[in-house]
Amino acid sequence: MTTAAIEGFAPAKVNLTLHVTGQRADGYHLLDSLVMFADVGDRVTVARAEQMSLTVTGPRAAGVPEDARNLCWKAAEAFGAPVAITLDKHLPAAAGIGGGSSDAAAVLRAMEELFGRPSGVDPLTLGADVPVCLLGRAARMQGIGGAVTPLDMPSLRAILVNPGVEVSTPAVFKALARRDNAPMPAVPDAAAQARDVLDWLAQQRNDLEPPAAALRPEIGQVLRALSSLDGARLVRMSGSGATCFALFDPDSPTDGMARDLQAAFPQWWVAETMLS
């Protein structure tokens, strides 16, 4: 019999920086990235069950697998108990904002609460983004994703845009011009103000942005549209794309800009958010 269900939030993960610093002999790339999480995302509901099941609902449910291909299912299997999972999907897939990884992390957190025990799962076995998504707050992630350092960062105001095209992460890495780029310098300390963090971020990079934009010209269109917004302090792509973001000073009136952008480009996914 199914018992009380646990609900969890799976926020969008935004790579504000992404420095590719090397490649291991086994092919895995070494990264150095500052990650923050949005207040928009998916929701998961997990309940005890006789056998595993996954139901995907929501405006972004189309095409999302409801079987063992889904990271939510893999996370529950790794935990080691059958559950009924409902995934309410709001984030675009293959979008560079860790939707699947954040969903998997939310399932693990919910199952820990449901069963009253630690998961015992090495999150890195589920994917490079799952460890930082399990933390679910501002962090520096390094190496192949397993080295996660929590950070005290001021909240940042942002607009996220995805043009509705999927980007193949392996293809982006294959097109990378070089893999031995400089790592990030020291991250601003806990006393930094939002404006100081924005100034620091502007000096950093996403090394995957040029190859991704070459593969998908729509990314360049999004970057140009975001750059035209009044008060945009930094415009960049997240992860391996195609989602891009614009960052603003804390008091900028971004809600109206997001509505105007959505009206101008109805085929795009647009979200006004705070990152933390």
Feature tags:
276 residues; alpha+beta; Alpha-Beta Plaits; seven-stranded mixed β-sheet; four-stranded antiparallel β-sheet; 8 helices; 27% helix
CATH class of the largest domain: Alpha Beta
Radius of gyration over alpha carbons?
Answer: 18 Å
Count the helices. How many? 8
- Kindly report the average pLDDT value: 96
Main sheet record: 7 strands, mixed
**N→C terminal distance:** 38 Å
Enter the CATH topology name of the largest domain: Ribosomal Protein S5, domain 2
Low-confidence stretches: none
The CATH architecture designation of the largest domain is: 2-Layer Sandwich
H/E element string? EEEEHEHHEEEHHHHEEHE
Report the β-strand fraction as a percent range: 25-35%
Overall geometric form: globular
Share of residues in helices = 25-40%
Task: Compute the number of strand runs.
Answer: 11
Number of domains: 2
Structural class: alpha+beta
Description:
This protein is an alpha+beta fold and 276 residues long. The protein has two domains: 6-147, Ribosomal Protein S5, domain 2, CATH 3.30.230; 152-275, GHMP kinase, C-terminal domain (Alpha-Beta Plaits, 2-Layer Sandwich). 27% of the residues lie in helices and 28% in strands. The chain contains eight helices and eleven strands. It has helices at 71-79, 99-115, 130-135, 169-174, 194-201, 209-215, 217-227, 254-264; strands at 6-15, 19-23, 29-48, 53-57, 83-88, 139-143, 147-150, 156-162, 234-237, 244-248, 269-275. Strands 1, 2, 3, 4, 5, 6 and 7 form a seven-stranded mixed sheet that branches. Helix 1 (71-79) runs parallel beside helix 2 and helix 6 (209-215) packs across helix 7. The chain is globular, with a radius of gyration of 18 Å.
